Amino acid sequence: MGVNAGVTTSGSRTPAPVKRARVVTITSGKGGVGKTTTTANIGVALAKLNQRVTLIDADIGLRNLDIIMGLENRIVYDLVDVVEGRCKLRQAMIKHKQLPELYLIPSAQTRDKTAVSPADMIQLTNQLRKEMDFIIIDCPAGIERGFRNAIAPADDVLIVTNPEVSAVRDADRIIGLLEAENKGPAKLILNRVKGDMVRKGEMLSAEDVTDILAIKIIGIVPEDDTVVSSSNAGTPLALSENSRAGVAFQNIARRLMGETVPFMPLDDSPNFFKRIARLFASGQ
Amino acid sequence: MPESTVAIKGTKEGLLIALDPSEEWQVITTELASRLDGQSAFFAGARVTIDVSTRPVRKDELSSIKALLERRGMSLWSVASESSTTIDSANALDLRATYNAPQNNSLSDDSTPMFSAEEDGTLGVMIRRTLRSGRTVHSQGHVVVFGDVNPGSEIIAGGDVIVWGRLRGNVHAGANGDTSAIVCALDMTPTQLRIAGFITVSPPDKRRKPKPEIALIRDDQIVVETWQ
Ligand SMILES: Nc1ncnc2c1ncn2[C@@H]1O[C@H](COP(=O)(O)OP(=O)(O)OP(=O)(O)O)[C@@H](O)[C@H]1O
Ligand SMILES: [Mg+2]
Hints:
The complex is a heterodimer. Chain A is α/β, with parallel strands linked by helices. Helix content of chain A is 39%, strand content 14%. Chain A has one domain: Rossmann fold (3-Layer(aba) Sandwich). In chain A, strands 3-4-2-5-1-6-7-8 form an 8-stranded mixed beta sheet, sandwiched between helices. In chain A, helix 7 links the parallel strand 6 (156-161) and strand 7. In chain A, helix 1 crosses helix 11 (244-256) and helix 5 packs parallel to helix 6 (145-151). Mean pLDDT of chain A is 87; it is low at 1-12. By secondary structure, chain B is of the alpha/beta class. Chain B is 18% helix and 36% strand. Chain B has helices at 25-38, 40-43, 59-71, 84-92; strands spanning 6-11, 14-19, 47-53, 75-81, 96-99, 124-127, 136-139, 142-145, 154-157, 161-167, 170-173, 183-188, 192-195, 198-200, 213-218, 221-226. Chain B has a 10-stranded mixed beta sheet with strand order 1-2-3-4-5-7-9-11-13-14. The interface between A and B is medium-sized, with 12 and 15 residues. Bound molecules: adenosine-5'-triphosphate (ATP) and magnesium ion.
């Protein structure tokens, strides 16, 4: 921006293109690792930190972010309606019940998966950037069109994986694809970690995973039964303070905003905590 | 009528489009576009392999070909070339790349300069990045990787494979039967290692210390020794 920015004489204002919001895409490659759960919870956590947030469900044909957000019954228009010009963007944005600065653009339930293109996604997010702080896109599983759509407008990509060899393998594939598209460096969220199993050497540790993927880790989310019950109830965990997974998601939100937040212990083993702390320090 | 600079044929893997390496790139792409447009309904949905022969194709040139095909409902998935520049471009775009060693027709009366006999077959590809899961590199010559070879990736080379990093994927050196081929890596824990017709897997020793090692065939089996 030039030195004259802000010095404006009334009437001759040429507003500089404001690129406010950060577009963050949540992806994984493998299905069922927790992308939608992560999108919902990070969205809620950011909105609680007074950020203006829009969530976009890019999983066309398999809509479910609206269910986890508890907003299913308010859907009138969806992403495909916006792209095909059947409604205005605003009309498809569903406002959250408790958090007034949190919106959801639901995906279409039944329509053709090719109805939306990467260029559509870029255009749509550009329209929103001025009014939002964060736009978070829930990517479908796989590496097909839906994946291309979801990453096209991304400023940041968060890759969700589980501590399982097959999920890590797919995450690696995704990182390779992102590198080819110059969308990087992605950051990693390791979801469904069981501290006791890691300690016994029965589950991959965060170190094992980052050793292969060689990317920074931005969140470690424990396995937590309340994830399932809260998803069913349509009230993402991060709305309340008192669950371990909820706190982990809130921490990711704060890290996204640039705060340095230490990783929380996954169990009562002090060694484990130290290992994680070290990992975070080295990731900086 | 001049002979066409673009040859399109169907194979069991999809469409194979061969582009004349001697014609100007601009001319070729224009020709390709008009050929495809002439039969667009016929080609739509096809998976395409591009063979550019000896032409070095830059990444931006390759990605414009990719876009040209995608606009016509086709997808570029594989590139075959005798130029390592082209192979680098294909790798950067995450396309499947097949390296064909340059044809050495030293018996023919062709006047173009040829590689000396000493260097014959020693050419190869160099990859300056980590090979991540899902990636395959084929080369008739050698393959050198500056980076890791992650689990789920694969290298198939007619010659040697040298990994300046951790080798954890699948590797096949001497794939055409050359039992003198070698594989070396700074940390050798491949999922599966083949040299010519021999196969071995890494022992499941988790707490080993990484050290540079070389694999070669001795007395009809693959042996792995310290690389010095
Ligand atoms: N930390 C966790 N602890 C316990 N269960 C979890 C956790 N994270 C996700 N789950 C559960 O895993 C399942 C899959 O989660 P989710 O739908 O978020 O995955 P996804 O990656 O979006 O799947 P898809 O690829 O099908 O879109 C859900 O039942 C969810 O409740
Ligand atoms: Mg999902």
